[in-house]
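Q:
My hope is that you can spare some time for a protein that puzzles me. I hope you can help me see how the letters and the tokens relate. Thank you; the sequence and its tokens follow:
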Amino acid sequence: MDDANSAPGGGADDPVREGRPWWTYAIPYAGQVPALKQSQWSLLGLLALAEFFEQYDVSLMGLALKQIQVGLQIPESEIAGVTAVVRAGSLVAFALSVLADRVGRRRLLLLTIVGFTVCTFGTAFAQDARQFMLMQLTARVFITAETLLAVVVLAEELHARDRGWGIGMLGALGSLGHGASAAVFAAVDHMPYGWRSLYLIGVVPLLFLAWFRRKLPETRRFQEQRAERKEEGLLGGLRPILHLARMYPRRVAVLSLALFPFDFVIATAYTFMPKTLQEVHGYSPGQVTAVFLVGGALGILGNVVAGQLGDRFGRKPVLCVAMLVNGLALAGFYNSEGYAIPFLWVAAVFSILAIGILFKALGTELFPTSHRSTASGMRMVVGTLGGIAGLSIEGSLYEITGSHAGAVTMLTPVLILPPLVIWLFLPETAQRELEEVSPER
């Protein structure tokens, strides 16, 4: 597998491309770029395009929440509930991740692209809060599934030495969708249909569907695993879940023990950062925007840098260092004043994006092809539940401390647990082929 022509993603007739494709220069990354095959570059480009539009959709609700609330006449007392219902769609995506281990990554990816595009477009025609919630909840199901599957496909098609870089570049390119939505949102008051116009733009990915169908391949590893699969009758649909529980139960437990407490703190801490900037540190909305734009631009690089450092030095040490930096940055942000605040915010954003990429890589590599997608779905469910739990407890801590900063500070000691669990109980996956890390049993 050390020969470039024997790596996943193509055979000897699939040449290595000299230089990087033009679209990768959207990310100002100056590090060493791997020599990928033509088919691997094409795959990365296709998935990045889908991620771009997916991130565009995810950003819209937060950006235009005020306009949506006014347009649909949603009472202030109900807006939090509407947001919570939409977020719950991520949990339903677990079913699609299981299905991808049965019918294939390609079919489900195409389904998710069509699904979130149609639902985004349909959101523009919502007449009340219920219709809006239904369209956006369904869109979130497809969006979450697409994000999970894109990482699985890259992990299965890239060489061991390039997986981290590829997953990081995918995340960075996809993050540009956030910038695109912010740029379009700036003109929302001048658009003929207001906030609805933002969602009408969401139909664009359908224009690329024929290209996706023609160029998006099934992964070699899934095809080989499917050829070896035995018929299992009516229980076949549960096969990925059964394998997840039977093959590597210790890894499932350890990864969950790391993910739940991490999201328990992080979801709450990042929710109240913009509010803290304005109410505690006196930032104007314009200053908050400036911090987000500058910090976000630097933070995007955290995706690629973390991926490549993870390839070079290992997922575990880089992930643990990033978690340490993130915890210190958050504690400093909520307990400091003055000029240090924007720098601490940038450090927090940079490190959280790095952690996200490394968690995706590690969580995908730890499980075999038969249930790799299901394991990714499980990781998302555990993280989502951890975030919900943290947000729920924060309210009680707020009553005790009298501030969100105090409540978040009381939560931060929990961040000591994830790096300890990862370092002590999970195997290193960098520079190792997937079959070596997680053979079928």
